[in-house]
Please model this.
Amino acid sequence: MESSIYIAKQPILQAEGEVFAYELFYRCTDSSHTSVDDNMYATARMLVNTLNYIGLYSLVDGKYAYIKVDKQILMSNIINSIAPSHFILEILETTTIDEELLRRIDKLKKEGYIFALNHYDRDAMNIHLFKEIMQRVSYVKIYSTDIIEFKERLSILHDTDITLIAEKIESDTEFKEAKNQGADMFQGYFFCKPELFGKDNIEPPSSLLMLIIYLLESEAKLERIIDIFNTSPYLTLNLLKFIHMHNGFAQNKIASIEQALIVIGREKLQSWLELMVYASDSEHKQEPFVQELQNHACHRAILMSILARQIGMDDANIHVAYMVGLLSMSEVIFQSAFEEIVKEVDLDNHIADALVNKSGHFGELLQLLSAIEHNDSYRTTAIIAHLGMSQHELNECLIQSYKEGTTGH
Model:
């Protein structure tokens, strides 16, 4: 069971020293190296760690992210969860190149995906496969000792503009040699060893993910899926991150779970859920304190929506209030400041202001919740007076929230 998750990154540098991209590596411990027996699991786990935990933008700072893939990954539905505008797909050198895979690569290239060959091995590829794959990739990683021979083979092709990345550079001598031989980019310990990141594992059990997939495949009503997200700050916030990552998805800021699910669509939602299933650990059980935090967030969401209705908000704003309450424990659950969290999501401005600054009508409701939880009667009285509520009305709202929390929202 993975109680913590890890990921490592290493820069890929241009000749002048500027970072072009970062390669992301799967890690199962805090050690500097991990042996990979299952490429599908390693890639899925690395993607989930990147997208749901560490954050793509904090890892690569707007640069491309290189990730390793093989035929199984490329042919699977989880490829749809990878935004082509942010990732370059490195085809592992152990991948069998056949007509089926070439057709799949052609289809994905039309959708905007960019490909690299993870390691060129002159002894492993015949001329036919060399031509076929080189006409489809934009980058090739290569040892400096193979650059001249590779460029000679490449010269027989027309209309190719492949960028050569010299890998495993471990000394200034190797760097200068690779540069003199015509390498375009460089990667290796000489420049930087992989940098490790880690966080606590708080993901939901795979049974919950499988339930949502079942509801999607059985074409269940959207309301049933919304009900599940309504109880999971983890799923809701990471869904918002996923939408934000796929450029062009969110033309409007997200103000409710229903809107988020409609924006992403069932097909993309299912590919994201399947990615998490592939990455899940069947033995993983959520820590009790994490479950308690999520339960508390759900109660806050229920109370926020009841208070919003009490002060006369319309249905749309009641949904906004619920979203604010559900995400209000995200700082603690995800171990990140709200200022950092809102950078990776397309949240409605009223929600963002409430979470970050505790401002606006929803921020005032959050302040009321905080005053109640801290048993601060002075602040509670002052806020409800400003909202036009009586103590009796507040008590009725509290009673109703506890009832809804025990019976299910």
The longest strand covers residues 4-14. The chain has a mean pLDDT of 86.
